[in-house]
Every structure is written in C-alpha cells, then in structure tokens.
Amino acid sequence: MRNVKVNAITLKKRDFKEKDRIVTVFTKEYGKYNLMAKGVQKLGSKLAGITEPISYSSLIVSNLKDLGVISSCDLKESFSNIHKNLNVLSHVLYILELTDKSTELEHPNEELFNALLSTLYLIEAGTNVDIAARYFEYSIINILGYSINTNSCQGCGCNLTDKIYYSAHFGGFFCETCNLSLNENIIFPQAILSYINVFDTYSVSKIKTLNFPTAVINDLSRLFKTHLAYRIDKQINSLEFIVKQKEDISSDI
Ligand SMILES: [Zn+2]
Fold it and tell me: Which residues keep their CB under 5 angstroms from ion ligand 1?
C-alpha cells in the first residue's frame, strides 16, 4: 500500500462508529477527499487536532482514495484566534461550507486551495471578517470560471452609470434601457463596480488593510451570494446561522 503525503485543510468532520471519525479535507495536491481517522474518539489520540474543521495539517494517507485511512499527521495551524470569536468562527465555517459545496471529490485545484488558506490566515491575523469573506467569495467565483462581467452593459455594451441591474442568468449587469425588456429587479449603485475592482487589483497582503462602508459590504455580499447560488445550486446551511446571529445582535441593541 502506497503512502501519500498531502497538505490539507479540514472542511468538516463526522463521528463514525464508536471510535472513528470521517473528515472531509481539501488537499493542495489532489483536491477534496473524505478520509478515515481511526481511533480518534479515544482519549489522547494524536489525530484529534487535525479532524477539527479549519485546521491546516500535513497528513500521511495510506492508499489515497475516498475513505482512505490517515496513518499519521502533523498539525501546522489550528487558527486559534478564529475560534475565539463566534461571529468570526461562523463566517469561517461558511467559507469552508462554500468550498465543500462548490467542489467535487478528487478534483485538484491548487489555486482554490491557496485562496482558501490565504483567506484563513488573513482572518487569523485580524482582517475584517466581512471583507475577507467577500474576498474569498470573489476568489472562488473567478477560480471556478464564473467571472462576473463588470466592464459594460451585457445588452448594448454601453458604459454602466447610475443604477445598474444585475442578472444572475447572464452573470453581469445591464443598463436601465436594456433592463426595460429584461425586468431584472436586483439593482446596485454603479459604485459597486469600483469596489469589485479593488479585489482584482489588490494583493492578498493589501486586503488586510481594507475598510469598506457597511452598505458596500452588504451589496457585495448580496451580489456574490446571488451569483454563486445560481451556479452552485446547493443550499449553504451556515448562512442561515450568520443571518440569525446578526438578527440577535441587532435585537440586543
Ligand atoms: Zn444596455
């Protein structure tokens, strides 16, 4: 049996029988896998840390395949700061779920792995979690080939000004005149285009310094989530938790 070494981010875990656990990991080298961590529910298991979602580790897997067995591990980063704040944690769990729901098993995508890992490090280092989550949504949109056309009206090619109308079906924006026949009702201020452009032009290290107005963050969130939902077609459950949490926070004020 051949041992394979992988660099992996744990997306989710579930207990299996009395002692074992199945973890879904996204590996840099080979994409997403469900792997078996044997004996991990026993006290003092060396595998326990790497089965926790968000953890980044190096794993040795005997015979890499679906439900292959993890034989040893080296936990590289547990992202302890992320775990200290429930709001931050819930956004990161959403990012992991988005990665899980938008990828197939055994399809390598090193670019997506790198985007996920750098987003986790950005958040661990204290970057505004709402901006980091939007940065990751925009990254995954582009990496998976679902780019949003921001250059001009999808209908007539004119420059977009004032109010612009987003079409999930066409994956871009329309001017007011073209929208008379389309009748899309998702409207954004034209300024959203320059904020999207920031993600295109800023390096990862500069994302750390960004500070967008709340209304812009909300607009970007609405745009990226609508765009992804139309293309991924799977329910992202952790989103409901974030919304519920925000409602709870506002009702406390
Ligand atoms: Zn037009």
Answer: 153, 155-156, 175, 178
Distance 191 CA to ligand 1 centre (A): 17
* pTM for this prediction: 0.92
Cα-to-centroid distance, 169 and ligand 1 (Å): 16
CA of 179 to the centre of ligand 1 (A): 7
> Separation of 1 CA from ligand 1 center, angstroms?
60
**Conformational region of residue 157, where left means phi above 0, alpha means psi within -120 to 50, and beta covers everything else:** left
58 CA → ligand 1 middle, Å? 51
pLDDT tens profile 184-236: 889 999 999 999 999 999 988 899 999 999 999 999 999 999 999 999 977 78
Say how far apart CA 49 and CA 80 lie, in whole Å: 12
CA 174 to CA 84: how far, in whole Å?
A: 43
- Expressed in angstroms and rounded, the spacing between residue 214 Cα and the centre of ligand 1 is 29
Rg, the chain, Cα only:
20
Judge contact between 158 and 152, C-beta under 8 A.
yes
* Residues constituting the chain: 253
Which residue in the block uniquely carries the two structure tokens 């990161």? 92
Residue 30 falls in which region: left (phi positive, over 0), alpha (psi -120 to 50) or beta: alpha
